[in-house]
Amino acid sequence: MIYEKPEFRPGGDRNILVYLGDEMSFDLNFLVHTYASKIRDAEIDGLVELIPELASLLVSYDPDRISYDDITRELASIRGGIGGLTGLELPSRIFYVPVLYFDPWTAECVEDYCRTIRDKERDADLMVRLNGLTDRQQLVRVHSGTEYWVAALGFWPGLGSFLPLDPRCHLTAPKYNPPRTWTPKGTVGMGGSITCIYPDRTPGGYQIFGMSPMPIWDPDQRLEAFADSLALFKPGDRVRFVPIGREEHDYIAAKVAEGTYKHPDVGYQSFSIDAYHDWIGRLDPQERF
Predict the structure, then answer these.
(1) How far is 28 from 56, CA to CA, in rounded Å?
(2) How many C-beta atoms surround the C-beta of residue 83 within 10 A?
(3) What is the pTM of this model?
(4) Which intervals hold domain Carboxyltransferase (predicted)?
(5) pLDDT tens digits for range 162-207
(6) All domains of the chain, ordered by start, with CATH?
(7) Cα R_g (the chain), whole angstroms
(8) Beta carbons within 10 angstroms of residue 40's beta carbon
């Protein structure tokens, strides 16, 4: 549920966890980012940093400039001024992300896990079975058939948590138990109902089934898209996965290696939650592609 009033929980003497609800939903996350935007606009003296997450925000502040009671009073007032979801809009970019589904690199990662840690049903086949799909090709159609909302960044620098915006494309997947010790850079995976792209070679626990040659994290800032930030995505962005073949994958990878790759995005647009609710209200969520 979405709370009528925010819940404040101290995190040491310089941080406050602010909870706006207790569910993992697009509506709640949209409210979180609207709230974060309003807090930034308020320019509260003593506010140091905001980190929005799925259902909450971490607020860092300087206790020498503003007290806990005063900043929570300010934060509560800002939340009260927002009210409900009706009429809310946020600026949102959309990125088109090329993906080679069922690629050899994630397949080898899964096989290595099965050889060295424990045998398991292969990731794509597990997702097909658990989600009532007919085959791997339907998995591709469903997974790539929606825009995704970048709900938060975390776990690893540049790693976004993506929520599907089309209810017909809702999928779920359990996490590995135990997790993998390594995952290839660029891997597309899913855990729970969240999709992610692994920005670097890291441990991981999501089911994996694709590879994107498009970098989303560039600590050296070699490519134009990273001129202002080491991470490609920001919370409130949208992502659309575009299935590609091996030839196109290798072409993009070569451009990235050369430093000439241009990330495909369509700038900022205004995302209206009213228009979104109107759209999904006309859909049959049981329909699959």
Answers:
(1) 9
(2) 9
(3) 0.94
(4) 6-233
(5) 999 999 999 999 999 999 999 999 999 999 999 999 999 999 999 9
(6) 2-85 (3.30.1360.40), 91-270 (2.40.100.10)
(7) 20
(8) 11
